[in-house]
Give the backbone structure.
Amino acid sequence: MVELRDIEIFLTLAEELHFGRTAERLHISPPRVSQAIAKQERRIGAQLFLRTSRKVTLTPLGEQLRDDLQAGYRRILEGVESATNTARGGPDTLTFGVMGPMWQDLAPMTALFRSRFPHVEFRVREVRIDDPFGPVRSGDVDMALVALPVPEPDLRVGPVTFTEPIVLVVNRAHALAGRSSVSYADLAGYEILPSGLPIPEYWEQAFTPVAPRAQSDVAPTREEVLWAVMSSDAVAFACAQAIKYYDRGEAVYVPIDESPTLSWGLVHRAGPISRWVAEFARIAAELGPIDLSLELDPSAPQRLRSVS
């Protein structure tokens, strides 16, 4: 008889392809991982993984077993979670974390979730941009909508939910303000400011597609970045939701020829997830990724309008 823990070890190793990371993720020792895999291979009578000094890979038989076990294992966990919720006598809930006003863009997904599961209480909690993962790690929210990528080893990323263009921000008097679009090469002679947001470095690279060339070594805030753009020839970048919800009257937004984009996705803690986290992720995959595209507004050429 195969124990559920051994199935969990196998599926985690099939995902991580690394004995140390698998052990760390499951809070067990690497020898325990090796013993569980060896026991399964003896029971089956064939290798499930190929191991070398440099890497671990699944054998064709291992791939087949992974595919056969994943759906059933997920259903078992969902069943246990559902039974636990019922036994505790509390209402089924899903607590969702969102940064800023992007909960409004989630409306199609939340409406579909509520129509399919009207008995589930859907709660929204604001997630601060300077601590986007804290509420997920602490369990204050079950899942959150955050910018991608998220290379955090204790978190797992679900489906991409939104994509949005990144555009250039300049002031009305700037030489590039009247352009229908600009290229990265056009920015060569200008000071390029960072985002000014309190975010991880990998998000800074995603938010700012051309490396900053700032004249000061002091990291500015977002308001300081916008002030510098409005009062000089410096340039910065903005994404669709920033334009939609935080537009500044003197700012001009110019499309970029290379069409850089920012993606947003769902993130939750690594390990077993609740049925409602899984259901919402399925709905997000079904509807998304939603394109938060923008186009120049012909009635106001220096403005962008949403076409989503």
